[in-house]
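Query structure, 188 tokens:
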């Protein structure tokens, strides 16, 4: 009787050990940090720091990847009084997997906010991911909404060289925290 119970316990223990080893191996293989190669690098970035609500904002970035496998650009927006919005993704075109220089376009008007208060601050964080999931350095752009008309200066080098292409659209819809009546769906 004891030997049958011992045998059953041993079978369960070996089964759990096997499952643990399989899960640990899968986590190791799927972890981008264990993949050979290097992460992309954002070498230059620029955006203005102040503008009116509803204006189009351009976020310029230049990135390189020695492995030639850049895949998508992540944009995360954090807004004072609201919090962090879900990550917005822009997928790169085939010719941009090793090097690109361009801008992300964001129409800051949102159907969720008829207005934003003067001096509303947001933070825009941009990074690039390659196919295995390695993330580049993160560039951070503080931005303040103001009511005055601000003339946008020309972007600095290397973004002032000829026709800089648009890489994609940022599709984050901002909220006016003074107009909300309930919680946001990503916090529920």
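Result returned for the query:
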């Amino acid at each position: 009787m004891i030997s049958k119970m011992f045998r059953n316990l041993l079978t369960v223990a070996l089964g759990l050990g096997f499952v643990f080893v399989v899960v640990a191996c899968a986590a190791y293989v799927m972890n981008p940090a264990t993949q050979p190669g290097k992460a992309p690098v954002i070498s230059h970035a620029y955006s203005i720091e102040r503008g009116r609500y509803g204006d189009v904002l351009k976020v310029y970035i230049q990135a390189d990847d020695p492995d030639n496998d850049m895949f998508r650009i992540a944009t995360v927006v954090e807004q004072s009084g609201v919090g962090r919005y879900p990550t917005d993704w822009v997928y790169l075109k085939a010719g941009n997997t090793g090097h690109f220089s361009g801008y992300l376009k964001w129409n800051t008007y949102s159907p969720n906010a008829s207005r934003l208060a003067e001096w509303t601050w947001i933070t825009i964080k941009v990074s690039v991911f390659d196919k295995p999931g390695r993330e580049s350095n993160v560039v951070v752009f503080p931005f303040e909404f103001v009511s005055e008309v601000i003339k946008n200066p020309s972007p600095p080098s290397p973004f002032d060289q000829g026709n800089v292409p648009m890489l994609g659209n940022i599709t984050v819809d901002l909220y006016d925290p003074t107009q909300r009546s309930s919680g946001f769906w990503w916090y529920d």
